[in-house]
Specification:
This protein has about 70 residues and is mostly beta strands. The chain has one domain (about 5-60): Thrombin, subunit H, CATH 2.40.10. Helices cover about 0% and strands about 50% of the residues. It has strands at about 5-10, 15-20, 30, 35-45, 50-55, 65-70. A six-stranded antiparallel β-barrel has the order 1-2-5-4-3-6. Strand 3 and strand 4 (about 35-45) form a beta hairpin. The termini are close together.
Length: about 70
């Protein structure tokens, strides 16, 4: 399994907007640098050619700077 780094576009509370990567699908699990599950993809938005996703974090106090998806 490969970890693919996500680009965080914005954050508000326990929700993040990220640029989607090819292997993401609805309910994809998002992990931090240690492999701990921190959230999941709950919505896809934007143009088909460059989609974005809404990630809902499990906790509001996430302070990490890097998020990954297991592909």
């Amino acid at each position: 399994m490969v970890l693919d780094k996500l680009e965080i576009i914005s954050r508000k509370g326990n929700e993040l907007v990220v640029k989607l990567v090819d292997c993401m699908s609805m309910d994809s699990r998002i992990v931090d640098g240690t492999g701990t599950n921190v959230g999941k993809l709950v919505r896809v938005m934007g143009p088909v050619s460059a989609p974005y996703g809404l990630v809902r974090l499990q906790q509001n106090d996430f302070r990490g700077t890097e998020l990954f998806i297991r592909c």
